[in-house]
Structure to design on (668 residues):
């Protein structure tokens, strides 16, 4: 890789805050990467107006052309949005936002870009558009042919990965097996090394209160999680646990561990969002899909239809998403 | 009530950090209350030595006598510890620590004290001692004849209560019913009014990711939690939910709600501990048993056998426990 990593930034659902956070993040993102937007040029131009930005949108038809636009915002223009209606779930918007992601994935697979950072899509809209995978992660896994992957959330110094995410809590309990915990430890370990941490220290959260307290509250901690941790240690991974869930995130935020493998969505999401709140009150945090053959990060917020089109959405998470995408891409290149 | 509230402070397990955090907290606690320790005078004297405190321990045989000791630390001396061995689980220590709590409960029931603040006990030790209820909360509920109660954790401005606490996560899912959520909303509402909040705003967390996202991830949010929230609103309670668990705690910490009713132990404990970490890094936070006929608060940490006897345990949580006990007692007295 010569120069800063090239990061494809997908625009997200046209009715959401995606375009405006991309505009607001753009100059700061250029500190870390050569970003090229994959989206619709007319929506991006509208976002520039909304945000009162001095930048101009330049529609391009290739990534290469996008790298030659100077100070402008290069948009690989799929031209798939006819009119702009903020805050509305529309089938055509769902189809458009899927196209941005699919295009970006293909660019990453063929090596035209070094990483992808995605703005939020709307799952109701992508479902209307007939998507088999309504969310980013399923789509990424399917299109890259991967089975073992995990969602890592980063709000430094805290990082968390998940054994499962968008499933009912009862089903999440069923999904806690020695095999699934072990594979999540492995993808977590690989991702932390990609982040430049040579010998990562990984905490594995328990499932039950106090990690069952020696079997007094549930069986999974000793029957499923502990064997996975022990097997990981035998593979040379510095894994610890099962640790009591109510304190392990505070310990990790204090520097004791590089990442906490979480047993379900909210176990990992709640502490990340609390830490983001503690730091500056704004939406921040970055979502990294780990275990893929390509580098992909995402903002850690949704389409925010209630404030879309107002130019008030915070760009912090998008700047972080591009920054971490660039760092991961550079590490893979070494 | 004349003067500051009288708070019985139980010493906790003699082998733990209870006595030392009481000693270290004592002067600060007197700002808010007239504290009287219920414990063993010899253990308390040892803690004074360990902490290098200037205070002296005064053994008394009644609360009344304890209020007349001037600057000394009054200890209602049960004289039930023969020798001190820090960090060791012992049956006699379990029996001793249960006696402190039982005595304090009886003093509160008969009105000799206005509130109880408890130092940590060790459940292994109380089980060895044959306790039917190994922990404080079960003991309190049984001895005061109460069925609907909840654990409220306070790390201001965030407060959380729980539909269930020390049960396996799968069982916690089963315990989320319209009835249990409704009764937890009610005890939460009463406790917030006791805290002086006239029209409390109560968020009710969902059980599943994104509160099921309209039924896509689980059934309990719409089938059990939503009807409980609607019924509470019909009773005139300003209840909201089910709210997405991953963001509701941040919203409450930002001032949007006075309390979050949590569906299981870690859902409520993780954000409280993260917020405590964000504020000063020390152990803080207070545990309030709400729904009882008496006022009871507790420190939000355990016996910490690994550091007991060293005088290094933080007293922050104990000071807060006495402060909030005094505030609740004063509010009930009005």
């Amino acid at each position: 890789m010569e120069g800063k990593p090239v990061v494809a930034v997908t625009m997200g659902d046209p009715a959401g805050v995606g375009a405006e956070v991309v505009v607001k993040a753009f100059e700061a993102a250029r500190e870390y990467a050569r970003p090229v937007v994959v989206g619709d040029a007319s929506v991006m131009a509208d976002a520039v107006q909304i945000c009162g930005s001095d930048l101009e949108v330049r529609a391009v038809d290739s990534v290469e052309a996008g790298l030659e636009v100077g100070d402008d915002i290069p948009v690989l223009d799929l031209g798939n949005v006819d009119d702009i209606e903020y805050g509305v779930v529309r089938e055509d918007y769902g189809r458009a936002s899927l196209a941005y992601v699919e295009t970006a994935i293909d660019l990453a697979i063929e090596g035209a870009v070094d990483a992808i950072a995605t703005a939020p899509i709307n799952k109701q809209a992508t479902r209307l558009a007939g998507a088999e995978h309504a969310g980013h992660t399923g789509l990424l896994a399917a299109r890259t042919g991967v089975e073992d992957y995990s969602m890592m959330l980063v709000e430094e110094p805290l990082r968390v990965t998940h054994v499962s995410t968008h499933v009912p809590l009862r089903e999440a309990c069923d999904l806690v097996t020695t095999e699934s915990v072990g594979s999540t430890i492995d993808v977590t370990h690989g991702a932390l090394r990609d982040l430049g941490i040579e010998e990562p220290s990984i905490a594995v959260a328990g499932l039950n209160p106090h990690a069952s307290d020696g079997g007094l509250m549930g069986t999974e901690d000793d029957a499923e999680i502990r064997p996975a941790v022990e097997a990981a240690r035998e593979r040379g991974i510095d894994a610890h646990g099962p640790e009591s869930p109510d304190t392990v995130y505070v310990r990790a935020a204090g520097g004791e561990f590089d990442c906490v493998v979480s047993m379900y969505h909210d176990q990992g999401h709640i502490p990340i969002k609390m830490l983001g709140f503690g730091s500056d009150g704004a939406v921040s945090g970055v979502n990294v899909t780990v275990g893929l053959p390509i580098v992909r990060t995402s903002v850690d917020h949704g389409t925010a239809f209630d404030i879309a089109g107002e130019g008030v959405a915070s760009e912090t998470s998008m700047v972080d998403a591009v920054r971490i995408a660039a760092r991961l891409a550079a590490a893979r290149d070494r």
In short: Confidence is low (pLDDT under 50) at residues 279-283 of chain A. Chain A touches chain B through 41 residues (CB under 8 Å). DSSP finds twelve helices and twelve strands in chain A. The longest strand of chain A covers residues 34-39.
